[in-house]
Amino acid sequence: MAKLVTNAYEKIKFDKYKERHFPALWWTIFFLILVVHCCWIFLDKTPPSWDMAYHEIKGLEFSRYYSQSNLLLNFPKISTYYPPLYYLQEALVFSIFPNSQFFVFFSNITAFFMLGYSTYRIALYFMDDLVAQICGVLTLLFPLVAWTSRLSLLDVPLAGWVAMSGYLVLKSNFLQKKSWTILMGLTIAAGMLTKWTFILFLSPL
Q1: Long-range contacts of 188-194 (CB under 8 A, 24+ apart)
Q2: Can you tell me whether residue 146 is helix, strand or coil?
Q3: Which among 27, 49, 77, 112 has most CB atoms closer than 10 A?
Q4: How far apart are CA 105 and CA 85, in angstroms?
Q5: Treating both helix axes as pointing N-terminal to C-terminal, what angle do 155-171 and 85-96 enclose, rounded to 10 degrees?
Q6: Which residue from 86, 108, 95 is spatially nearest to 65, judged by alpha carbons?
Q7: Which are the contacts of 89, defined by CB distance < 8 A and separation ≥ 6?
Q8: CB within 8 A of 49, min separation 6: which ones?
Q9: 131 SS3 class
């Protein structure tokens, strides 16, 4: 079995050019997409509702208890349904940008980046660089991804951790490279701490 896995990896292995190549097109369009999102958020005055409001409230509660130095004491009762990682990210961003209308989007940027970049790197295993960069861009332009990336929802963070985990499976040579395997384990842990359904999306790998 191990031999089959190794042979499969060798068939899709990067050449040195792909490994070192800088994806200028992807980075350029990625920053343009961020600018467009910021413009949209600046113009959009719609208040959050339903799930979006719930997730924002939880993030603000984490931030409030942290500022009062009693976060650990109140930690078990803040988030009684979803894992706390996303709310901790929101609390961190809110502490840096208090009262900013962009704090939700800034909380999602890390996952937004992971989703697009991991898609590019995975595609690079199977196709040429230009097509792989386009794949990484198109993922960020899907209507559902574009919409939820501006909202306090778990969809984009969950997708980002899943995509990064899938990339690290390949990068670790199917768990044969120790350092990349450890990083993959940390990524999986972060995914589980974002939403417990993470493992269902990772299981096909």
Answers
A1: 188/161, 190/85, 190/161, 191/158, 191/161, 191/162, 191/165, 192/83, 193/83, 193/84, 193/85, 194/83, 194/85, 194/86, 194/154, 194/157, 194/158, 194/161
A2: helix
A3: 112
A4: 16
A5: 110
A6: 95
A7: 59, 107, 110, 157
A8: none
A9: helix
In sequence order, what DSSP letters do the residues of 10-51 get, joined into one string?
A: HHTPPPHHHHH---HHHHHHHHHHHHHHHHHHHH--PPP-HH
Two tokens at 131?
Answer: 């097509």
State how far the Cα of 188 lies from the Cα of 32, in Å rounded to an integer.
29
H/E segment holding residue 120: helix 103-124
Tokens of 24: 């200028």
Provide CB contacts within 8 A for 61, sequence distance 6+: 78, 87
Residue range 158-174, pLDDT digits in tens = 999 999 999 999 999 88
Residue 137: count other Cβ atoms within 10 Å of its Cβ: 20
Per-residue pLDDT band for 10 (boundaries 50, 70, 90) equals low
For the beta carbon of residue 42, count every other beta carbon within 10 angstroms. Answer: 10
Q: Model-level pTM?
A: 0.86
Q: Measuring CA to CA, how many Å separate 89 from each of 121, 138, 200?
A: 25, 26, 23
